[in-house]
Write a structure and sequence with these properties.
heterotrimer; A alpha+beta (about 325); B alpha+beta (about 160); C alpha/beta (about 160); A: Double Stranded RNA Binding Domain; rod-shaped; B: alpha+beta; Alpha-Beta Plaits; Small ribosomal subunit protein uS10m (chain B); ribonucleoprotein (chain B); Ribosomal_uS10_dom (chain B); Ribosomal_uS10_dom_sf (chain B); mitochondrion (chain B)
Amino acid sequence: MSAGLTRLWERLPLKKHAAQSRIRVFSNQDQPEIEDDEEFRVLSLRTVKQQFQRRQQVRRDPITPPRTTRMAVDQDWTAVWPGPRSFHPASVPLPLRQGFTERGAAAPSKFANAELMKIPNFLHLTPPAIRQQCEAIKRFCTPWPKGLETEAKWQRHFPIEVTTTDYCQSLPTIRNPEARKVTVSLKLSDLRFDSHSRDKFLRLVGDRYNKETDILTIVTDRCPQKKQNYDYALYLLTACYHESFVTEPWEETKSEADMEEYLFERNQSKISAEGILNWNAKEGAPKESPSKSYANSVEQLINEGENEYNLGKYKEEVKKMLNIV
Amino acid sequence: MLKVLKTLRWAQPVRALSAVTATSGTQAHVSPTTPVPEPDKLYSKLEIEMRGIDPAVLKSYTWFATTAAEHLGIEKGKCWSPRKAHHERMTLLKSVHIYKKHRVQYEVRTHFRYMNFHKLTGSTLDTFLEYIERNLPEGVALQASRTELQQVPEHLRQPPEQV
Amino acid sequence: MNFLKKLVPQAAAEVQQLSRSSIHTSVVCCRVQSGRYRITTKRNRALTYEMANPPHFIGHRKSWNSWNTSTLKDALRPSQTAIEDVFIRKFVTGTWHALVCSEIIIKRQHNTIRIAALIRQAITPRKMYFLIGYTEELLSYWMQCPVTLELQTVGDKKDVVFKYI
């Protein structure tokens, strides 16, 4: 059986050879012949293993080398990195390294380094880029007007200060409920008052007035919009100002006990002093009234309280008035 | 006093865009009623507060903003940051159920940084603020409070005559 | 998370059923294990830089994966942002199946979301471009804001390995 097989096998290549030579005649090519018939073919009954050993080669597209290798030294960096972007090692020609390692080991390089991708970079805001962009937007800017250099100068013409706040956050919405707040502040000395209206105005505004700095501050956050709050603040200011000039009929009934400070003009001490000065005066003669400095010293003594200076001054004034020297 | 005020009104800058339309209107003689240039607003102070989780990013951003202000000719005020960050802490048990003495703390830190700019006109402020807001890095919240200067309104200059 | 409900109407009911079952994932329970890896006997567990540093090194040795202003003091909608981030992470890892080699970094700037990740070069560039467009389009539809993918590719998974334990 086996002898018959080998004989058959020996005869086969002869035919093959003949066929190949015939082809060679037609194609007229000088090819070396492949002599694979010299090896014995191995009969393997378990062919399964061999089939799996031949792995399929994964065909991969050629990967281009990083762009940094082709970059010129004097390139325009603002064109390479025009806007905010996560770090990409193939575009940045810097030998960066990032990461903590044990002592002696080098930090991880820029390729496949997630730490470099995480940190926000300012590669689009290099000094030349900032200068370039600022020169482009400079034509929208206007200089500060002359004559208003110092705070004292601008406060004379623009006494009211309006403070508003804008918010910029990384959210899908641009609305922030805090942005509605408006603060209007001005010095009270910039508004004109008489003594009654000033007193009434201060009572109306309450603790919005700072006594030490003489500044009135109105903060409004009632309305949902900034513009509405600003209008409301100005409305409050206007309403309080105009209301303070109104004298209600019941304000006339303010008695001495309701006064918040002592006034010489409307008190008993003035009548007594006049009585002393006009002692034994004839009927119809011009009345003498106590001097202004005396009135001041009495007011000071009662409003500020008794201290050494006020008492001494009062003593001097009394002596002067009574001509006791 | 009045004279000074008048000269001041003249010296006040006009809003860039409205000024352009006004001049083009006069040149073309198309519209007989040239729009009156709207006087620009004046801001005495622009205070910017930044919050972020990484102080280094805030520092870089401050450098960017102050450099831009220098290029645009804006007067820079005090730039500072508080030394310590705000810590928001949450203390939990380390184990699931008992062992009260063993706790663990989580915290979120918020770093602050402040910048001040002085004496800006309305158009300068809008330009500058939009420029730096557009370049705001991720993870940084910005809060800009501006102080506008205004004249006393007409109806508050004199005491009311009839009340 | 209305869009999630729209996305999977049946899932909402299932979640309610699940919440009744005795699965608990509280903060306390996960703390000791989360983000920490055990040493293997053969010393062949591959760790990236991110995995090699446990969570208490955030801000010292490694930085944050989510960059937004919602976690700051007095910030708006912290919970919505966190849930959206989880959703983006799940969507991207699922869409780029077995391709993502690192954590997914989500950066929010104004109203835009930028997503950065390391991707393995296992698929053809053509498929990769399709997936980029697909991810951006769907995410921007759900989040109602522009989404940009900023990917970096690595040749092999071993490129991102920092150490073996």
